[in-house]
Each structure stands twice: as structure tokens, then as C-alpha cells.
Amino acid sequence: MLPFPWPILLGYIAVVSLVSITICIYDKTISKRNNVKLRIPEKTLFICSALGGSLAMFITMQLIRHKTNHLSFMIGIPVIFILQVALIAALTYFQILPSLF
I want to staple 56 with a disulfide (CB 3.0 to 4.6 A). Which of 17, 28, 78, 96 is the partner? Predict the structure, then answer.
């Protein structure tokens, strides 16, 4: 079996996390200007989170106080993160993914 390209996966997660941080900060900045047309749709924020930026998105939301009053974000983003960690753990446990350590 070929070794799993962990550096590529970690690089992907880093890029998606950076994009998630960027769009979260951008949306917060635009929200202060009350420009609804330029806002990032909530669906896009959830998609970036689901693609691997959930932890970065949640931390950024807490730091800049963005969407923290929206229950769907305060529950949804951590649930997405927990599901991602569980999926990686299950794939590693069943030896579909090789162990990182």
C-alpha cells in the first residue's frame, strides 16, 4: 500500500482554514457597513467549514464576535468539526487511512 500523503492533506486543511478565516473577517467587515449585497451567504460559511475549515472558522468567529448570536453557527460549526474528527478517527481505526503517528 502506498503511504498516505498526510502533508498534502494538512496543506489542504491549512488553505481551507485560511480561506475560512478570510471570508469570516470579510463578512464581519462588510456587515458593519450594512451592505447586504456584498455579504457572504451563510451557506458559503457553512460550506467552507464543512470542507475542512471548521476549527479555524469557529475560533475566528469567537475572536471577532461574528455570528456568535446565531444558534445555527454556535452549534453547527462545532458539530461539523466533531463529525470531521470522528470521520478521520474512524477511517484510521478501520485502517482505511494510515495512522498519522
Answer: 17
Helix (H) or strand (E) holding 68: none
| Percent of residues in the chain assigned helix, strand, coil, to nearest 5 | 75, 0, 25
Q: Please, is 45 exposed, middle or buried when counting C-beta atoms within 10 Å of its C-beta (0-12, 13-18, 19+)?
A: buried
Diameter of the chain by CA atoms? 54
Whether the Cβ atoms of residue 49 and residue 57 lie closer than 8 Å to each other: yes
Please state the separation of Cα 95 from the chain's center in Å. 25
User: How buried is 97 (Cβ within 10 angstroms: 0-12 exposed, 13-18 middle, 19+ buried)?
Assistant: middle
pLDDT in tens, 61-94: 999 999 999 999 999 999 999 999 999 889 888 8
| Nearest alpha-carbon partner for 44 in 32, 59, 62, 57 | 57
